[in-house]
């Protein structure tokens, strides 16, 4: 098996393959998809890549670890099960998983935990603590139909991949243009470019929603370039990666997440844009 056989010739496939070959898979991955089977197959492929014993292609599909993952019998791959007939995974199941994270793997070099069910807000807050300081060689794979069901703080500590139909909605050219303008303005010492760029968001909620989503992707890429050594990103991504430290980029991601939350609560657009500009300015230093 390979990522391409599951995901086809897609940008997500290329990103996952590159991360796997460079041994730089994220410690927490969110797969968003309305196709449950596709998301589960992608999760299996990712788990195999994470635990693969090969020194070359990962997942190789033929080593003992890969074969056990595909057969569903690997002792170091766990599914967090919702118990008691509940509709969502609760804080108890997450705390049990966290305790298990610190126990030595049975036979592999690491452990993988699947979270396929919805999580309560309390469960996500419990999960957030370990996402902020994850144990070595542990990977979390979260599958959701809509990433908006997850807390923004959880998303900001994870790498989001949209699979299948979830990745089909394309942002407008205007939203992309504004997001690029904001990204270019962030590292600049002058305030006017940032004020002008964020001011364009007053055109409407839809373009603002799309722009914020794109900015979140930009900040994720900047972190990947800075700390995972990824290359080939656009110059505005590289500019942020070179000029900002990790803490600043994470703060910027949190600012965008908070702005998305404010937008979902129908916040006044003038207040939102003013708040966004001020907090971007503060977070970049």
Low-confidence stretches: none
At the fold tier of CATH, the topology name of the largest domain is: Rossmann fold
User: What is the percent of helical residues?
Assistant: 40-55%
Determine the number of helices (DSSP H or I, runs of at least 4 residues): 13
Strand order of the largest sheet: 2-3-4-1-5
Kindly report how far apart the N and C termini lie.
Answer: 45 Å
Tally of extended strands? 5
Q: Name the CATH superfamily classification of the largest domain.
A: P-loop containing nucleotide triphosphate hydrolases
Highest CATH level, the class of the largest domain:
Alpha Beta
Tell me the strand percentage band. Answer: 5-15%
**CATH hierarchy: architecture of the largest domain:** 3-Layer(aba) Sandwich
The SS-based structural class is alpha/beta
The arrangement of helices and strands along the chain is: HHEHHEHEHEHEHHHHHH
Q: What overall form do the CA principal axes indicate?
A: globular
The count of domains is 2
**Average pLDDT:** 88
- Major β-sheet annotation: 5 strands, parallel
> What's the alpha carbon Rg, rounded to whole Å?
19 Å
């Amino acid at each position: 098996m390979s990522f391409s056989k599951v995901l086809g010739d897609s940008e997500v496939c290329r990103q996952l393959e590159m991360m796997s070959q460079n041994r730089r898979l994220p410690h927490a991955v969110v797969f968003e998809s309305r196709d449950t089977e596709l998301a589960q197959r992608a999760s299996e492929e990712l788990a195999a890549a994470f635990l693969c014993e090969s020194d070359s292609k990962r997942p190789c599909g033929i080593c003992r670890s890969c074969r056990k993952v595909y057969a569903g019998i690997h002792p170091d791959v766990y599914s967090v099960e919702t118990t008691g007939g509940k509709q969502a995974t609760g804080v108890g199941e997450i705390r049990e998983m966290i305790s298990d994270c610190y126990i030595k793997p049975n036979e592999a070099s690491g452990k993988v935990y699947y979270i396929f069910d919805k999580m309560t807000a309390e469960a996500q807050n419990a999960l957030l603590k370990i996402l902020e300081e994850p144990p070595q060689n542990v990977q979390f794979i979260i599958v959701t139909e809509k990433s908006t069901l997850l807390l923004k703080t959880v998303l900001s500590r994870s790498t989001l991949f949209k699979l299948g139909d979830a990745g089909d909605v394309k942002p407008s050219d205007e939203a992309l243009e504004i997001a690029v303008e904001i990204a270019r303005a962030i590292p600049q010492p002058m305030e006017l470019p940032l004020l002008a760029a964020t001011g364009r968001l007053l055109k409407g909620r839809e373009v603002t929603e799309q722009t914020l989503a794109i900015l979140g992707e930009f900040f994720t890429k900047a972190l990947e370039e800075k700390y995972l050594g990824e290359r080939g990103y656009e110059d505005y991504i590289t500019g942020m990666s070179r000029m900002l430290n990790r803490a600043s980029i994470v703060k910027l991601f949190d600012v965008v997440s908070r702005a998305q939350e404010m937008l979902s609560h129908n916040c006044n657009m003038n207040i939102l844009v003013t708040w966004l500009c001020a907090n971007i300015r503060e977070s970049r230093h």
